[in-house]
Amino acid sequence: MNKLQGGLPYVAMLLVLFASSAVNAAVPGEDLTQSTIGYASLVIFGIAYCLVMGEEYLQLRKSKPVLLAAGLIWLMIGYVYQQQGNIEVAQAALEHNLLEYAELLLFLLVAMTYISAMEERRLFDALQAWMVSKGFNFRSLFWLTGILSFIISPIADNLTTALLMCAVVMKVGGSNLRFINIACVNIVIAANAGGAFSPFGDITTLMVWQAGLVTFTQFLDLFIPSLVNYLVPALIMSFFVPRTRPNTTNEHVELKRGARRIVCLFILTIATAVGFHAWVHFPPVMGMMMGLAYLQFFGFFLRKTLPSSLEKKKAVAIANNDEAALKRIGSVVPFDVFKRVSHAEWDTLLFFYGVVMCVGGLSLLGYLGVVSDIMYTQWNPVWANIMVGILSAIVDNIPVMFAVLTMQPELSLGNWLLVTLTAGVGGSLLSIGSAAGVALMGAAHGKYTFFGHLKWAPVIALGYVASIVCHLLLNHHLF
User: Which residue ranges does the record assign to the Citrate transporter-like domain (predicted)?
Assistant: First the structure.
């Protein structure tokens, strides 16, 4: 610790030197892509992402390197813009990125809280027991969770759906790490593919819809290409999933009080989020936060009515001479919403902060603008949109799509749908390429990993290419 503290002043001095050299190399309004600060920021971001990808072997939580990288990048940016007397520009950019993250954070926090509440009410235990009682083997479970992910994600968004299905896989898979990994890969692909043909399935589709470039019904033209994107890798991967049954025993799971009503409240929360956007054109996060109030009031109701509920159950248990029921009644713990909030995957939420701020800094330096300009002025738009999907897997689809929308290139409807498709499903190529993949690395920590996903990348890439070809063939009249 002392060595670290002793080295911090030298690190700060180096950063100031980097920034100082950039001050003379740029004037206000000019990009810093060719400056020392620009190169230093790229190196810092690259090192941070290498540490993220090595999380499985380094045992270093993925949020730590990107949080540090974000701080270092913005420290250099702040110094340069202050020396130029143009600090207001950097402050505005910083506040814009913080606002984007705040919306993402609150949205995810509510979704994770609901999922934690459902788990505490034993809904996933009941779903596991149902699957076991039906005699599903691992291959059937592989298809069941994948298909449900594809169906639910257009409504509940790909991230929430992936977390929900991952919880089921973790319950059923038990100690079978191989099944959990391949099932999580399948869920990420299915959730991203399902979210690509709905404005509410992914943040990128929402951005395109809000920009007025594609109407609600026109997104449905992406349904078959999205389905192909899921089915091609799923068919191949299914041959590597055994037909053996989970090592679990049949059991009856009694749902805790209010479990089904929490599911209904979650559906109402999603509807509220959709309503806020559709009717008053506010960010969906407003509806999600209102939905958190639904859960809080319901938690208050459960606590207040708990004594009378326990008395009724106790009377029934005594009448039936059910000792097991009496023991369960004695172990009942009142429902606490804030305890559910504390169970959110904070490493994942902080990782998102680091990524958003790092990429926001690189965007202010001019790198995203340069890349977008090259792609849409020197390349064919189709190839440029295909590359957007690949970039989405490496960096993140939100800032890449934001850069494309900022440029507003002259594209046909077919090409706008293509970039929507590639940005949505391209993130499936790597586990860090989408919110669903990043969240599952946290939810299934040590069981679903970057390298566990990477070994299936060629198969996923085959589905990526097939979905693009399908779109070009089916929707050629839109180009």
Answer: 62-424
